Amino acid sequence: MTPAEQASWDLLEAARSGVQEIGPLFDEGADIGVEDSAGRTAIVIASQGGNQRTVAALIGAKADIDHITKTGGTALMWAAHNAHTAVMRDLLQAGAMVNHQNLNGATPLVFAAQNGHLEAAKLLLSFDASVNLVAKNGGTALMWAAHNGHASVVEMLMAAGGDVDHKDSSEVTSLLWASQCGHLKVCQALLSGGANVNLPAKNGDSALMWACHNGYPQVVVELLSHKADIKHVDGNSVPALIWAAQNGHWQVVDVLMSCGASCNHKDNNGDTALIRASHNGHCKVVEKLCDCRAEVNHPANDGFTSPIMAARNGHSEVLKVLLQHKADVKEETQAHATALMWASENGFEECTQMLIEAGSAVSHSNCNGATGLMCAACNGHTGIVDKLLKARAAVNAVTIKGGSALIGAALHGHQEVVLSLIGAKALVNQADNNGDTALIQAAHNGHHDVVSLMIPRGVDVNSAANDGVTPLIAAARNGHMQVVSTLLAFGADASHTDVESRTAQSWADHSGHTLVAAALHDAEGASLKDPKESSDKPSIEMLDDRKGTACVRGTCATVGNSRACSGPANGQQNQGYCVQQ
Q1: Residue 513 Cα distances to 63, 464, 504, 551, angstroms
Q2: How far apart are the C-alpha atoms of 230 and 211, rounded to whole Å?
């Protein structure tokens, strides 16, 4: 590095640290216009740090006061951003560009306004800063001050001619920004300055809606006092009340209801304030709406009612309130699912018990033929299964594809549920429309504990599905060694062939399960002893051979619906038990 280059870099450091005596650096050949990696020169750096004397020395040395950095910034912008008013005055008096816009279109006044620097903004205005210059996003200095809650700056900019109803690129006004952020004093200033309280954004949202959405009751009161339209709706026909209810802002709901908001307004989806509040578990809001005679049993377009929403999401306190206000527990969605079915599928025991006690039909089936018991069984909710069985739910009901609660529980490996169902006289050898039994499904997915549980309880170890697949073949082709061993020990026929003329051994060979194939080779054609007479009877202890292979036997019979399914994970077939998918 040459002496002149070193002096130039020393100049930047001097500007950063506020060194006043920079003349000797110029004597050494320092370049007054040298830039750092961000494109900042010494005067920009000194202005950013508020080093007035250094700035004055640089101005005296004929530094370029309007040098533009890589982001389009200038010395005056940085001084305004950081409220260095003395530096700003020196730059302005030296003729700095007061209305220069950076790459985003922001001016020095915008920087001062957005950061609440009242004196800096006042100084810029005294040097003819344009109050209504628009940035690339359509924002102005007034909008930035309103967004960030700087009431004094807002008042000053309005007095200087700031356009109080200017809209940015999303057609949002200063009042909308202030309302969204809950800046009460700014809202008061804007409204006093003549802001249009009902100007909507591009998406139809109003200032009142944003204040309600975010829960600012004082702002809501202020807007309503200036005749905000309480009936205004957005593009989806959602009014302020629904937004407040959905987000649990009970104080805002109170204000709106006292001012005549309709508690039974329906949006484009058919949702009401009560449905939204029930869905999200806002009990206090639900209580207030019910007290104002909201329609408890109104169904949305997809059939979901407030009680169904509460049950589906496990909001027991909300459900309790709704039941006290005569909720109809027999209402169904378009897929014919009831509140009880949703509570059962999602594992909400308290809601399930409340609905049983309220008279829900425990054996009701949806459009797939699935019942609440099947939904609970598939998902392993033992407590709910026990409650439903105690309420005399039909244990052997089947879906439109023949699936039962026991088959579903066995498929997913829920041992305790299987035990409860068998104890309630579930048919252990019942097959679905494909001929699959609970044992075949358990064997297929490697649920050794379920297989071991079922075998001594009257299950047929050699039952064959329509395609000839037996529990042994199902286990063998998926490599479930422990299941294979247990089935063989209890009389499974290793020589049986499916419709493809394959035995369990040939399937194991084909699938690359060499150990399983070897075991089956030894067993094939052998005459196995009755395990009840054997001295080396295999242990029926719980073993961990759960590989979770997805069922691929095509027994799912679910029907689509607009609400997301919360059924079995891992992509497993569910026999059509899911409430909806």
Answers
A1: 81, 22, 11, 19
A2: 12
| Cα 303 to Cα 213: distance, rounded to the nearest angstrom | 25
Separation CA 362–CA 371 (nearest Å): 8
Which of 50-59, 179-188, 391-400, 568-577 is least confident? 568-577
* DSSP one-letter code for 569: S
DSSP H or E stretch at residue 545: none
Cβ count near 410 (within 10 Å):
33
Q: What are the structure tokens assigned to 196, written together?
A: 């249009």
For 50, left (φ over 0), alpha (ψ -120 to 50), or beta?
A: left
3-state secondary structure of 470: coil
How far is Cα 182 from Cα 19, in angstroms, rounded to an integer? 44
Buried-exposed string 361-388: b where 16+ CB fall within 10 A, e elsewhere: bbebbbbbbbbbbbbbbbbbbbebbbbb
- What value, to the nearest 5°, has the Cα angle with vertex 533 and ends 529 and 535? 90
pLDDT at res. 229: 98
- Are 238 and 273 within 8 A, CB to CB? no
Over residues 10-61, the pLDDT tens digits come to 999 999 998 878 889 988 999 999 999 999 999 999 999 999 999 999 999 9
The neighbour count for residue 133, using CB atoms within 10 Å, is 17
Q: Which residue has the tokens 């004082």?
A: 218
According to the model, what pLDDT value does residue 522 have?
87
Q: Is 374 in contact with 568 (CB distance < 8 Å)?
A: no
Q: What is the dihedral of CA 411, 413, 416, 418, to 10 degrees?
A: 20
CA distances 90 to 52, 68, 80, 121, 129, Å, are: 8, 18, 12, 15, 16
Question: What tens digit of pLDDT does each residue of 508-548 get?
Answer: 999 999 999 999 998 875 544 444 444 344 433 333 332 33
Domains and CATH numbers, the chain: 459-545 (1.25.40.20)
Alpha-carbon span 4 to 309, nearest angstrom: 75
